[in-house]
Amino acid sequence: MRESLKKTLSLSKTNGVNGHAQHAPFPEPSEAKARELEQASLEEKAKSRAPEKGVVIPSQALWAQGSRVGGGITPAQISSIIRSADMGSPAQLIDLANESRQADSHLQAVLGTNEESIAGCKWQVVAPEFSGKLRAKDKRVAQWVEQVLRGCDDFATLIAHLAGAYYYGYAVAEIVFRKEAGRLIPARFVFVAPRRFAFRSEDGKLVLWDSGSTQVDIASKYPNKFIIAQPRVNGDVPNREGLCRPLVWMSIMRRWVLGDWVHTGEMSWKPYRIGTYKQATAGAKDRDDLELILRKLTTDFTAVKSDACEIDIEWPAGTQRAASTHGELANVLANEMSKAVLGQTETTQSSSSSGYAQAKVHDGVRRDIRDSRARQIATIISRDLIAAIVRVNFGDSVAVPRFEFVTSDAPDLVAFSSAVKTFVDAGLKIPQKWVRDEAGIPEPTEGEPVLESEKNPEPGDAADAPEKPTPPPSPSGGGEDKPDAAQAPSDEGPEPEDA
Hints:
There is one protein chain. The protein is mostly helical. It is built from 16 helices and nine strands. The chain has a domain at 272-314. 44% of the residues lie in helices and 10% in strands. The strands form four sheets. A three-stranded antiparallel β-sheet has the order 3-2-6, with helices on one face. Strands 1-9 form a two-stranded antiparallel sheet. A two-stranded antiparallel ribbon has the order 4-5. Strand 4 (197-199) and strand 5 form a beta hairpin. The longest helix is centred in the last third of the chain and has 39 residues, at 356-394. The chain is elongated, with a radius of gyration of 33 Å.
């Protein structure tokens, strides 16, 4: 398996996505040539630029990375875009989703909260147990994998990228390996834009498909190279998953409301400008000039008129309502977004019925949703990333460790330690691993400095220390049983064989 990945990496240096040989990069194409390349196949586009070392999917020119839907979109156009995504071509829906997120601060806030709350969770890599027993080699592999992941600078960004799959319906990242001390480890991750994918018509599978190119099943063609997240969001078929479908409607309607509200606000504190002309002598040009004068009074507050017309300025009576209909509707739409992403509204904006008890309940709902999504992402990381690292370095003889997020709140360590001591003194046998997990204390590796209580006083303090009765010898004749310390990974990583 390791040799297979090396072959894949070697091919990615010289071959395009479809296996065609790369040529030397051409000069920067003109705009006409760039438009022509947009319609070319993926392998032909790959020939026009030098591939990045160790990367399978070639980068795109800037003009091909996205498009603007525009502010004048209509409900019929939105429906047409969603129908196109239903047929397996989600690029326009992705563009609309990106534009909605960029134009709506509330949508950005709730999506950012969802992604960063998961990326900010503590995590660990846990070795599997067989019949309640932990094998030494599996423990060493898990410790080494965790050390490798903590050395990746953009691993937290990878988690946030995978959390974005709940918005788009999927997220894909490419693993870029490098060799270090005889092992292949992730050097970084390339986050592939969602608009570059489609769903294959014959089986609905997610495939790479740039405009005009051949569809490529990257998961099958390049094993151990891609992390693909397709979480369950609404329970529909994969090509109809994702929160972007309801959220683009809420966001665009909210932008319509806010735009109308701004226009209304612009007119609210301006006086009425009433022009009167003499019907008997004024012609069409006179009427047009008078209308132009009234409009200039709106913006420049100055105008020149003849004595053939009269202009009156009247301020509207104070008939404003205490609450604005526009504001109420904008808040309703914002709350709908919060419910779709976070499951509640109180953690994003307060309401007239807000209180501590209600806010606490709503925060509990948000945490439940975050924890559920974190478990799904942890499963994806274990399947596509950790399994790839283990397979390319140790083959199938080593059990794959499990990636876990630590989402529970840390206990009060003073009260917790006191309770554990009380239970132990009462004769209850408590596993050390459980205590460490609950307290959030990692297990030390072999040779790592640790804090220990001083069981014996210093020689100079022996006279001052009270005498303690000598404990009876152990029935086995030996000292206390100590847990097997994990072997620290060597420069070449852990060995798959048992010590």
